[in-house]
Design brief:
This protein has strands at 9-11, 18-20, 30-31, 34-35, 37-39. It is mostly beta strands. Strand 3 (30-31) and strand 4 (34-35) form a beta hairpin.
């Protein structure tokens, strides 16, 4: 899933790392070899 806007939060379903987007640069977020899940 592509990063679309500042403030989005993502979580890794394997290790539990969470990130909050501070700058949109395109692309996807990957952790532990898998795409991170967008939290709603």
């Amino acid at each position: 899933m592509a990063v679309l806007e500042i403030g989005e939060k993502y979580r890794c379903n394997i290790c539990g790392n969470e990130v909050t987007v501070t700058k949109v640069g395109g692309g996807t977020l990957v952790c532990c070899g898998e795409d991170m899940e967008l939290l709603k």
